[in-house]
Amino acid sequence: MKTTCKQNKILLFLAISLFSFLILASVSHAWYLTKEFAKELQEKQRAVDKNPNDPLTRFDLAITMAYTNKIPDGWTNLKKAVEIDPAFRKKGLEIYYNKAVESPDDWRIRFRLAFAYYFNDKKRDAIEELKNVLILDPYNVWAYGYIALIYGELNEVDTALGYTKKGLAIDSNVAALHLLLAEGMNRKGNKWGSIQETMEAMRLRALGY
User: Fold this and answer.
1) What is the pLDDT of residue 21?
2) One-character DSSP codes across 135-184
3) Looking at domain 142-209, does it have CATH number 1.25.40.10?
């Protein structure tokens, strides 16, 4: 009889644990490099390797890097696209605006259009496009991050902090978001908070986040 009670307790514990795991899994939207994203990165990189002097191919790779946590490499390729063809700023905007009209529900195209606006110094339009990304993909932490970044550049620090915190509420393990939060806190005069967030970003970056 004692053995049966113990077994029942174990089964109950396992059932509760499994239920808790399923609940957590259902509400967790943490970003990670999926096989799909990894394949996309490889395909975009191969396209650049085959045609390194094509600005559109560079831009395409750069934006994939922007939403797959390859931020420094993404900025490098963005700059390279304009170095190859200074007129690409306007060309790229026209290309991705038309693509967005043709495929309005493709968040990847919206992401590219946002950066095309940004590269043409149309930061408000870039923000609106990133908000369109969030309509299509509500748990896209990178869209939150870049919205925060642009608001910060517009000196709207409180709004930037708000979007950063929304991104962190989805995934607290993104080092880039902690760096954004650190910058916002520093600009608001919260030096200690800024130091703490910077240290957390460094810790996460060391772990590969």
Assistant:
1) 35
2) HHSTT-HHHHHHHHHHHHHTT-HHHHHHHHHHHHHH-TT-HHHHHHHHHH
3) yes
| Cα atoms in the 13 Å half-sphere on the side-chain side of 21 | 6
The DSSP code for 188 is T
Give me the pLDDT at residue 121, please: 95
The distance from CA 188 to its chain's CA centroid, rounded to whole angstroms, is 24
Enumerate the domain spans of the chain. 142-209
AA identity, residue 158: D
| Mean pLDDT for back-to-back runs of 10 residues, the chain (209 residues) | 50 40 40 85 97 96 95 93 94 97 97 96 98 96 97 96 96 92 94 92 83
Both tokens assigned to 182: 């650190």
List all residues 6 or more positions away from 129 whose beta carbon is below 8 Å from its beta carbon: 100, 110, 111, 113, 114, 117
